[in-house]
Protein 1
Amino acid sequence: MNTGNTQGAKNAWRQTVARVVKSEMSVRGVKYQALSQRLEEIGVEQSADNLRNKVNKGIMGADLLLQILYVLKARPLDAALLEEILTDLQQ
């Protein structure tokens, strides 16, 4: 991946995080309120609005990202999928 600058690379990765989470939510038909409830079941308190903001910006800690993927029972991520998303973002 070559975005040309550090800020561009950071934005591409953030957009990738957002796409991955939104895709997993969409596949399962999970809205932000339901995601908030699922997280609460494993002891993680995040309001639906807070989750929406974090997901849309693609900015969250690694722990929250893993917790979200866990409660969504997300499909496995691999480098090929990430590369596909990053390439798509460059076009």
Protein 2
Amino acid sequence: MRLKTSIWVSAYLRRCQSAGVFGAISHRGAEEAGAVFIKVALMDRTAQLYVPAPQAVYDDSRPFERLFVSAWPQPIAEFEVDERLRKELRFDPDAWIVETEDKQGRHFLDLAREQP
């Protein structure tokens, strides 16, 4: 059974805080199973966005973990990330948006392995 999204988000924010990274929920989604989008602001008006990994990348031995992929190979203008998040919320109002600020761009997420 997968951990409730609200609990996962709380744990993620504690993990960020313990590393000295500010993080906050900018949109609270469905408590049980909302998708989570992580915005990492780099403090230079650019940001990176991490989105839920496609189901095809999940390992059958660990189907309940949360994996993410980067939406873009490099950070982009923060306003473009914000626009993408607005579109995501129009499509899925149950999604969670978590924003962090870190000049180093640390995200503290489990990333999906690249598909060959």
Protein 3
Amino acid sequence: MFDERSPIYLQIAEQIKNDIVTGALAEDEQVMSTNQYAAFYRINPATAAKGFAQLVDEGVLYKKRGIGMFVSPNARDLLRTGRQDGFFADVVDPMIREAKAIGVPLRDVIQHIRKYGDS
């Protein structure tokens, strides 16, 4: 499940974010506790707690004292907006720059993209 490319706590946070974006975790749904998460994935509870704390700081999760952690009501929209912004900055803008650099007309790029949208 976890790889060596980034710290485990960041991978935990990313996995939970993915679950929210895809709808596997709904708004106001309770998530596993850090201890349950640590036991399930056989990791240090402090590592799981660090990932959860990051999500709380980002407004993706919130705590109900004595009950546990829950998905924030606006988490999915928040995450999707951030990913959309990142998509354009990380994928579309460099693609356009590369197309210009190698002489591919923008209309050809758009036509190619439309082929995927129609399938």
